[in-house]
Write a structure and sequence with these properties.
Elements (H helix, E strand, L loop, with lengths): L2 H6 L8 E14 L2 E14 L3 E5 L6 H8 L7 E6 L2 E2 L5 H11 E4 L11 H9 L8 H7 L15 H13 L5 E5 L7 H18 L2 E5 L11 E6 L2 E7 L12
Parallel strand pairs: 3-8, 3-9, 6-7, 7-8
Antiparallel strand pairs: 1-2, 1-4, 4-5, 9-10
Helix pairs in contact: 4-5, 4-6, 5-6, 6-7
């Protein structure tokens, strides 16, 4: 990003660097076949920004999110989280990093069917250092009236919002979302986007959202496009639209 944009905070309300990747490369080897999933990626993510990651299937978006989230190791190159080098950490240290700092949201909600919304969130709040209460976290995502519902009694969008409440209840610095609206229609998807937007604005959480839905780019501070394991472009949105103005 040009220095001038960083100084004006155009990337987000804060502008401090949360993640920095330099020459990040990931090669998957399956038998004889080598896939260069990331090919020398240099990118920064900033404090309090909402970044949307776009790009064709197989372009490396999930691989990047998994490495910055401490779920996977890079083949070469480096990644720092607030100055701590993640690529130098062993699995134990990465697990500690992840527990303390990262919330994940995936396309499928992975809720425990036999537990209510509140109990699903409590699984995390019971083991975190300074968590919100489950009721607070579910309130943030607009589910105060659904605390005692089981997943089967909730719509897809509501289940995804329970998953988001579970991810943010430990107050992570970053929330990494891989296709969070991929299984949802426009109306319920917008409610999920509203929850992510509110978390970004009110808690200052850095939010990265992978999507195939280009309409979502308009709510981001920045749009990062992937192509063939590289960053093809980074665009700063001069103005952003609210999630309820997005349709697909
Ligand atoms: N565990 C793995 N083993 C082998 N190859 C993998 C593995 N994970 C990803 N890949 C390959 O790495 C490349 C990048 O995959 P990645 O999932 O990061 O892409 P993506 O942009 O997130 O795609 P999509 O939008 O379809 O989720 C693809 O060619 C994929 O097949």
């Amino acid at each position: 990003m040009p220095e001038a944009e960083r100084q004006t905070g155009a990337a987000g309300p804060d502008g401090g660097v949360v993640f920095r990747a330099a020459g990040l490369t990931k090669i998957y080897e399956t038998g004889e076949v080598k896939v260069r999933a990331l090919d020398g990626v240099d990118i920064e993510l900033f404090a309090s920004e909402l970044a949307v990651l776009l790009g064709p299937s197989g372009s490396g978006k999930s691989t990047l999110l998994n490495i910055v989230g401490g779920l996977d190791h890079a083949t070469s190159g480096k990644v720092w989280f607030r100055g701590q080098e993640l690529t130098a950490m062993n699995d134990r240290a990465l697990t500690r990093y992840r527990r303390a700092n990262v919330g994940f949201v995936f396309q499928f909600y992975n809720l425990i069917p036999s537990l209510t919304a509140r109990e699903n969130v409590a699984l995390v709040t019971d083991i975190a250092d300074d968590p919100m209460t489950p009721d607070e976290a579910l309130g943030m995502v607009g589910l105060s009236a659904r605390l005692d519902h089981f997943p089967a009694e909730l719509s897809g969008g509501e289940q995804q919002r329970v998953a988001i409440a579970r991810a943010i209840a430990k107050r992570p610095g970053v929330l990494l979302c891989d296709e969070p609206t991929g299984a949802l229609d426009s109306k319920t998807g917008v409610q999920v986007l509203e929850a992510l937007d509110r978390i970004n604005r009110e808690l200052g959480t850095t939010v990265a959202v992978i999507t195939h839905n280009v309409a979502i780019r308009a709510m981001a501070h920045r749009v990062i496009r992937f192509q063939d394991g590289r960053i093809a472009s980074v665009e700063v949105n001069a103005s952003r639209i609210r999630p309820d103005q997005i349709e697909w």
